[in-house]
Specification:
The complex is a heterodimer of chains A (288) and B (381). Chain A is of the alpha/beta class and 288 residues long. Chain A contains nine helices and 14 strands. The longest helix of chain A is centred in the N-terminal third of the chain and has 13 residues. Chain B has 13 helices and 18 strands. The chains are: A alpha/beta (288), B alpha+beta (381).
Chain lengths: 288, 381
């Protein structure tokens, strides 16, 4: 098993003819993801490789029955694209786009939620269930099937840690990048809940960052609701307070959201703590 | 993006928020002229992107135009938290009967803008939250409906039991909310909102931060950026589409991705070094970006070693290798460099580097240890 996506996942690509959309569509198909439709307004009826293109998500969903959509449209159009997917009845929406205005997300989040869809991102690398399906941009070759669930707020740091696990022979059920923006659709607790329920996941690796209180909330959830071991890491211990470090979400404001606070929360929850990315390998081995 | 107090006040005035007269001055002559025009006691306030201006001596009263000139002379050019004061705001020093706090903050937890108001204003709102939380009212706003009139009145009555003042405050809440939304803010604050002895409700100080992601569609707001108030190397980096933050250490870091960049800095620290910067070259990096990144890092005299940490996903490691070769041909390096790259086109990248006399590593941990050793004067293994 895996969480959120598997072999039955059928995907619409919004922005399939764009630079990033077209590149990653081919990567996903090569990995074995079932890409059933693309959407580019004005190009309906054409094809991208063998994938039929539609003018609207509603049409694409109706014709193909796709249950998932992945979004590669430019930031100023991304909010509308997310809402379009939710309105079309897609149940998993993965927004890769970086740079979406946060105020846009204050409208998108309730809209998507009220329609019962799950939004992942924006500003995220997507997710991959090794050997089954990948939706987004996580490089397929760094992953391998196995018992560890991975959830992270960042992109390349996740790749680094997943790659180290893979090289050490520790595979993954699903790797999920929830994204670094202040308002995102899926948080750590959503992923931990799903991993706890997934029979094949035996342990979870969780990579957080400075800023906000999601990691502290997740730690409390681990303590109260998780039977499976969780190992955590926090990036940004050397970040100066109040500065933007690439991710809009990674701002330390006042006392809330420092690395020290988050690591303390992990300790209080009895989680394993990786001080360095490489520590995940030994900590996982000891827990599997 | 942070904007200055005088810019935030200009925006709020445009929405009708009552604000005492004042203007910004870059010279003592201008400051004196503004004070003469106001014709009453004024406050001279340093315009820098830093909190604690008052404590640092950057906010002072002046009774006459001559005194304004003298006070402005002291504040202009002063250093506050490492930033030079280039401008002062000269504004009417209103008489104060009571002070309140009004703010809107984009809140991650509720995923909404949240109004925070308190009748205990004029001081640090964090302090109020810690000591007397009952004196703060929080109200999350559904942006699909906006701030509704009854909500604005609830906020107004929380500040002032008197209906006239509550109504005046409610009107200001509406104006502040519209300014917040129209200008893509992540924070908008009036602290203090004051009642004058004759009962007027006015804003004495204002602060706004803008979500950087909004700037592409709000060119007028983007034009408010004051590059003179920022670290010059950070301005250069932004113009080259790099995310860069200068720090005080001696290991210059070039990384792709914000999370990996932070983790790399942390690892430098873990092995006893100090990072000289945060630098994210972003996802699809071309050689040109790497050339610019190296220019910015080598301009810092504190840097004693340079560390590249690249995990190629979208980023092609051969692009990075080509960038390093081009940059070092243009400007030969005076400090040692450690290059770690793995991922997309790794074999090509290693070949390019080796042919040009560089060695490449594949393990992040080893690369960081080596860079720290070189920066602290040791010799590389």
């Amino acid at each position: 098993m895996s969480i959120f996506i598997d072999k039955n996942t059928t995907v619409i690509v919004q922005g399939i003819t764009g630079r990033d959309g077209s590149f990653h569509t081919r990567q996903m198909i090569e990995y074995g993801t079932r890409i059933v439709a693309g959407v580019t307004p004005g190009k309906g009826g054409q094809k991208f490789d063998a994938v039929p293109i539609f003018n609207t998500v509603a049409e694409a969903a109706k014709e193909t029955g796709a249950n998932t959509s992945v979004i590669y449209v430019p930031p100023m159009y991304a909010a509308d694209a997310m809402m379009e997917a939710a309105a079309a009845g897609v149940t998993l929406i993965v927004a890769i786009t970086e740079g979406v205005p946060v105020l846009d997300m204050t409208r998108v989040y309730p809209f998507v939620k009220e329609r019962g869809a799950r939004l992942l991102g924006p500003n995220c690398p997507g997710l991959i269930s090794p050997g089954k399906s990948k939706v987004g941009i996580i490089p397929g070759r760094i992953c391998t099937p196995g018992p560890v669930g991975v959830v992270s707020r960042s992109g390349t740091l996740t790749y680094e840690i997943v790659y180290q696990l893979t090289r050490a022979g520790i595979g993954q059920t699903t790797c999920v990048g929830i994204g670094g923006d202040p308002i995102n659709g899926t948080n750590f607790i959503d992923c931990l809940t799903a991993f706890e329920q997934d029979p094949e996941t035996k342990a979870v690796a969780m990579m957080g960052e400075i800023g906000g209180t999601d990691e502290q909330d997740a730690a409390r959830f681990v303590k109260e609701h998780m039977s499976k071991p969780v190992v955590g890491f926090i990036a940004g211990q050397t970040a100066p307070p109040g500065r933007r470090m690439g991710h809009a979400g990674a701002i330390i404001s006042g006392s809330a959201g420092t690395a020290a606070e988050k690591i303390q929360a992990f300790e209080d929850a009895g989680m394993g703590i990786a001080r360095r990315p490489m520590d995940f390998v030994e900590l996982m081995k000891a827990r599997l | 993006m942070n904007i200055h107090e005088y810019q935030a006040k200009d925006i709020l005035r445009g929405y009708g928020v009552p604000i005492p007269p004042g203007d910004v001055a870059a010279t003592v002559d201008e400051a004196e002229r503004i004070a003469r025009r106001i014709g009453r006691t004024v406050v001279v306030k340093a315009q820098v992107h830093a909190g604690g201006r008052g404590k640092a001596g950057g906010v002072k009263l002046a009774k006459t135009p001559e005194e304004t000139r003298e006070v402005a002379g002291k504040i202009l050019g002063m250093q506050i938290k490492g930033l030079t004061v280039e401008k002062v705001l000269v504004t009417d020093a209103a008489d104060i009967a009571s002070e309140a706090y009004v703010g809107i903050i984009l809140d991650r937890a509720s995923k909404k803008p949240v109004f925070m108001v308190s009748p205990a204003g004029g001081i640090d709102i964090e302090e109020v939250a810690a000591k007397t939380p009952e004196k703060i009212m929080r109200l999350p706003i559904d942006t699909r409906y906006g701030l509704m009139p009854f909500q604005a009145m609830e906020l107004g009555f929380f500040l002032y039991p008197d209906a006239t003042k509550a109504r005046a405050a409610a009107k200001i809440m509406q104006q502040l909310y519209r300014a917040f939304m129209d200008n893509g803010a992540s924070l908008a604050e009036i602290n203090p909102l004051v009642v004058t002895p004759n009962g007027d409700v006015i804003a004495l100080d204002a602060k706004m931060s803008i979500d950087d992601n909004e700037l592409d569609r709000l060119p007028k707001v983007a034009a408010l950026r004051d590059e003179s108030a920022e670290e010059p190397s950070e301005v250069r980096a932004r113009n080259a589409s790099l995310t860069f933050i200068k720090l005080d250490g001696n290991v210059g870091c070039v990384v792709n991705g914000a999370g990996l960049a932070m983790a790399t800095m942390d690892l430098v620290k873990y092995y006893g070094g100090e990072p000289a910067n945060f630098l994210d070259i972003g996802g699809s990096s071309n050689p040109e970006k790497v050339v610019n990144a190296l220019k910015i890092i080598t301009a810092d005299p504190n840097v004693k070693a340079i560390l590249f940490n690249i995990f190629g996903g979208i980023t092609r490691t051969d692009d990075v290798a080509n960038g390093i070769v081009t940059a070092t041909k243009q400007n030969p390096l005076k400090v040692p460099i450690v290059i770690r790259l793995t991922g997309t086109n790794e074999e090509i990248a290693v070949k390019i580097l080796t042919e040009n006399g560089f060695s490449a590593m594949t393990d992040m941990d080893e690369a960081v240890q080596r860079a720290v050793k070189l920066a602290t004067g040791g010799t590389a293994a």
